[in-house]
Design brief:
Order of helices and strands: HEEEEEHEEHHHEHHEEH
Distance between the termini: 56 Å
Largest sheet: 4 strands, antiparallel
Number of helices: 8
Shape: elongated
Structural class: alpha+beta
Radius of gyration: 20 Å
CATH class of the largest domain: Mainly Beta
Strand content: 15-25%
Number of strands: 10
CATH architecture of the largest domain: Sandwich
Oligomer: single chain
Length: 223
């Protein structure tokens, strides 16, 4: 971890234009780089800072003692982590963990610096705007978990990733907050119904229109 250079600050302002009105000297925001698979923060820990991603991706999820986890959202460059935001505003511990899914570069704004920057109205508006968007996403996720069938959610998770989804059954299970065996069983059913073809760490979509019907709450295809 190093201090923020002029070049890195310029990159940060390009990704987060709202930062252009701030002086980097008013807050400690050192640069950090982490390879894929790095645990940036974990549940129950105090918030060590406010991450501003310059490159890469962070998966934010909640886990259980049994090893299961539910993905809440992913943070990419230009976005904010609502769990970190809530922790800093509420002065409480982290309620989820963050894991890099790709090589990631970020600025880690100190809690004191975050408080100072929130005195700047454009930055404060930006934070609350993203916070509101993330809250809406989390409410949609809660609704999906409570009311949608798992096959419906799996169909939705497969769509929008191209004709070939490069993901393991375990990765999909983690994303849906279930166990690998159930995802495997559902994918086998999808395969029997002619919706997908399963290969090694990839799933080929054969009938995207039928998957969209299923994702939208329609009945499974007649077998």
């Amino acid at each position: 971890m190093t201090t923020t250079s002029a070049a890195i600050w310029a990159r940060a302002c390009a990704v987060y234009p709202v930062l252009a009105g701030l002086d980097p000297a008013t807050a400690q925001a050192p640069y950090a780089a982490a390879p894929a698979g790095t645990l940036l923060f974990h549940e129950g820990a105090p918030c060590g800072g406010f991450p501003l991603l310059l490159a890469g991706e962070v998966q934010v999820a909640r886990g259980t003692a049994g090893g299961r986890q539910l993905e809440l959202y992913r943070v990419t460059p230009g976005e904010l982590c609502v769990v970190s935001t809530a922790c800093l505003f509420g002065s409480g511990p982290m309620t989820a963990h963050g894991l890099t899914t790709a090589a990631t570069e970020l600025l880690l704004l100190s809690p004191a610096g975050f408080a100072r920057w929130c005195e700047h109205e454009p930055f404060r508006r930006f934070v609350f705007g993203v916070f509101a968007d993330r809250l809406a996403d989390l409410m949609a996720l809660a609704e999906a978990v409570a009311f949608q069938r798992l096959d419906q959610r799996l169909a939705a998770a497969l769509l929008g990733r191209g004709t070939r989804v490069h993901a393991t059954h375990q990765q999909l299970a983690d994303e849906l907050g279930t166990v690998r065996e159930i995802v495997t069983r559902l994918l086998r059913r999808f395969e029997r119904d002619g919706l997908v073809r399963c290969g090694r760490e990839q799933i080929e979509l054969l009938d995207a229109p039928a998957l969209r019907v299923l994702a939208g709450g329609g009945p499974p295809p007649a077998r």
